[in-house]
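Researcher: Predict the fold of Enterobactin synthetase component F.
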Amino acid sequence: MDAKPPAAISGTGAPLTEAQTGLWYTQRIDPTNPILNTGQYLDISGPLDVDAFRKAVDATVDEAEALSLRFEDRPDGPVQVVDPSRRPLLEVIDVSGADDPAAEALAAIEADTNTPVDLARDRIAAFRLYRLSDERHFFYERIHHLAIDGFGMVLVTNRVAERYSCLMKGTEPAANFPPLQVALDDDRAYAGSEKRAADRAFWHEAMAGLEPVSGMAPGRAISGPSFHRESLYLPQRFMERLQAFASEAKVTWPDALTALVAAYCRRFAGTEEIVVGVPHMGRLGNVAARVPCMLMNVLPLRVAPDEAQATGDYLVGVSKQMMRARRHGRYRSEQLRRDLGLVGGSRRLYGPLINMQPFDLPPTMPGLDVRLNILGAGAVDDITFTFRGDALSALLMEVDSNPALYSAEATKAHSRRLAAFLEKAMDATTLADVPIACDADVERYLVEANRTEHDVPDTTLTALIEAKMAQTPDAPALVFGDTMLSYAELDRRTAALAGELVKRGAGRDRIVAVALPRSAELVIALIASLRAGAAYLPLDLDNPPQRLARIVAAAKPVCVLAEPGNEAFAGAQVLAPADWPQEPGEGALPQVEPGDMAYVIYTSGSTGDPKGVVIEHRAIVNRLEWMRTHYGFTADDRFLQKTPATFDVSVWEFFLPFLCGARLVVAPPGAHRDPAAIAALVRRHGITTLHFVPSMLSAFLASPASQGLSVARTFCSGEELTADHRDRFHQRIAGELHNLYGPTEAAVDVSYWPAGPDDTSSPVPIGFPVWNTRLYVLDARLRPLPPGVAGHLYLAGVQLARCYLGRPDLTEERFVADPFRPGERMYMTGDLARLREDGAVVYLGRCDYQVKIRGLRIELGEIEAAIAGSALVSDAAVIVREDRPGDKRIVAYVVPGEGYEAERLRRNMAARLADYMVPSAVVEMQAMPVNANGKLDRKALPAPSFEVQAVREPATSTEAALCQLVADVLGLEALPDPDADFFNLGGDSLLAVHLLLRVQERFGFDPGLGVLFEHPTIATLAASIDADRVHDSGLEPIIKLRGGDEGRPPLFIVHPAGGLSWGYRTLARSLGTGRAVYGLQSPSIDPEHPLPDSLDALAADYAERIAELYPQGPYHLAGWSVGGIIAHAMAVHLKARGKEVGVVAMLDSYPAECWRAEPEPDEAAALRALLAIAGYDPNAHPELTTRAAIIEFLREGDSPLGNLPGTALDGVVRVVLDTNRLVRTHYHGRYEGTVMHVRAGLDHEDRPDLKPELWLAHAAALDCVEVPFLHPQLTAPAASALIAPELDRRLAEHD
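Model: Structure tokens for Enterobactin synthetase component F follow.
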């Protein structure tokens, strides 16, 4: 037989009980946290006999041994010892002399409650009587939770009252409390009993299949040192109704309340099931029932109400569930958490706590009026709903919440809202009949939040554009490449085309289709369509002809503005740009009304056919006028138009500039996928406003080209903008960031949120409604929801679309009557959302099979319909998977049918679907998984494998490197076959951007998206890279910095002193599109290559190399610093050979005679040249003086230079030292042409003799430009943004 455990009273100590162990470790983990100080005070009015009361308290302390516990941490674990010296005898404190005795006492009570207890040193409990006056006292009790639970506190308090009453009456009290050892022995006996094993089995079965538990608010539920509390005494009528309600259902009122509060909590959790914690005394039938100590347990209660069920039946079900749980209630919840692996992190056994305390009433003492005030009952991890009282004389509802999860305002709202919910639930037939929002919620979040009425002129988009054309005729309106149109020219061109469209049938509520790539002609076509009185319909030329033909057939446009020869437009009237008139006719253009159609945009359709959304002028005018005014746009702004016209964001990009008299810069086709091209456009044109889909913003921020940009306003919409996106943006780009939200069916955007650098929201909200617009978050019965509850997002107001073109059935389904504004409509978005306390709306995802990937709206049903239409499968399902955070991919699951071939199915889908809708993977299944209801179990669909088994080894080092990069970008577990297609492996256009960023890091140059689309297999991409003569090292004598039109003369940029041209990459990207740019690098970086005899010999060698690469000329040359001197010498040699020389540009270069007296640089100076080559200002880093420090700095900055092999570094140092020798011994020949000189305007204070005019001794003419930078900064992004347009203009003069 086991030896009897050590008695706590013996001094040797007893182990902690199971009930105490979890609390012990909670306090040990955070010893300064006072949250486990349970406490209360009695507000006693009347003639209290203080001496008798002291005797009553001290006698109670003597018999309640747990109040004198001392805890010790010993090598074999913590123990507890009853230490009589630690008895918390009553302290009497007189505060009657204070100005406000009650406030004085309460301040002292609060200070003590908030003071952590040292379990080894301090008394575990304290009892204090504060004398406010002869007729009023506060009796304060504070006991650490390790020593007492809620019922134990009641036992102690009632025992004090009993003893006081007996002293006053002269009677004897009842028997003393049983000794603490009774509870310790019982705990030990239970620990090894069959009952515990049975209880354990019960709970394991009860919790089987438990999904991750969530609370009512997002975030980690970890108790802090304090909590919010909101208390409310429920009225007499409530208690009477509660008693009758419980009686009707034949359950106890505490069980009835628990069931209703659980239903309330589940509404907020937004899950089918919620697990609530229900405190359990664990004393009934227990020998330790009257022992004041810590015995209480928390039982997890799984509640999944069928809200259509009769409320009484629901109560009975929950009550029976609780009865079963109580029979097994001694098995500790802490142990159950360990059993289920729910310890640590954010894993939880239960969410909110629902605590019924029917025994928690003020004690009675003769001649005294006593009120009970509970201060704290232990840790508040999430939120606790406590009901104290017998529901006859009193019932107090307390809401305690964790401040990390709930604000004080939210806590107060839950108190108010829960009381209203309970009252309505007790009168409802079913829970489904009970709204969760109370009257105050409806007023605040439905009415006040949607007071967005604002006067907007009842006019048309056409009229606004025409008015601005007339006001600012000479101002630049439109820029595309080298083309610039003034407002007058735009007026003329669009009026001319509009007149022609009218002749061809365009007019009010007629449609003109526009199928043109991004260009000046595209903008002209859109405005002309509006001026002709028609609505424009943009078409995506990348769509399969079948899809385009279906759209054209459905829309019946009077004309298609497109290049000829597209089979999709067979049978339609096509008007090509070459046939557009250039001058307006004499006839007046039609008058357009605010209720007329402005544009039609087709989106994905669930039935397999795209659906056309019709937007009227009044709607889009409201949206654009709100944006113009809200963000303060002026004529000084420059907008970048890069969004495809078929995406409704393009609408404000196209037209808002023309409402402000601002300038619209149109990006070249394909540029919206190229971060470097976007950055170059921003810098070149001084863009102040641009838009990104968040996933593209992520790629843009990852690109080196975006570093240091300044953009006044960047807008995001189309998909969720994350807090990470926001924070990365502000770390990298100077300017405002704004989050917008809206479906195509509501004129682009209906809500806004300023995602500034001080915004800490996570998730980032979609915000507040724009002018004359309303956002409703409603439940399934179209009832308003309060903050924190997920619901369906509906939109109402002036911006709603007229209809779906030719689809009255679908229009009626999605545009429904507004129950809050008779006679008006609202649009069912299909989005899930919830309100914040400040009224901002948070987007939560979709509630149907529609998804958004990179801002493109996709109906999965359209993809499923395309697969079914192939007749190759017997069953199909399509989902979006996000197996890696942020990497959303469409995956199709098919059960193959007769004649099935994977490649045949893929070809069939590609012919019917837009490229962004074609699944990244097709998973073949024997049968689709179904759940118990026979429905498709989407959670059981397996993750696809994007792997392609490698059938051969990489043939070259470039192939091997690319295989690894592709595996990293796509998250492949194994290296792919070199012959695998990047897009068939699961790649898409956004992942292609990420791959090219990695290629640039690895190879030192970006081949461009066009190359990847042209060469999608790893092997062909590797061959393309090799063919461009840019290998792993990037050290060849000529490297391509950017591709371009082979028919246009390229620009050759000569290396500076370090011999490398990598630093020109930003300048090359900043130049206008269409021209190839090559960098000339020193062959002498290779230690095997001899050093040149002279700078003339080096220039002659370079001239020969470029003549071999581009025989016909003319030759455009440029160079920074020493590179400019070499470029001048090359021009002399080329002229001597009879070759035509175009631009010769020097970036702050000065003739050789300026440097003859300069000392020779040492190795440290040569190494520091690497900083300038990498784009850094060497003068900004004086601490970098050693080879190791410079290399480490470059590696930390992710510069490819930091990864140069040692021999290449030696070569750079060798070239720097030798180039300086070459310069000092060089004598210039004369160049009979013009030299362009770019001077670093902020530099050379110590060398005033360095002037561009020095070149007039060596050139026929000088063309000077000055930029506000230092010499080392001239290849940095900001300087490149100023230099590139000047260089472009001069290059264009030679084309």
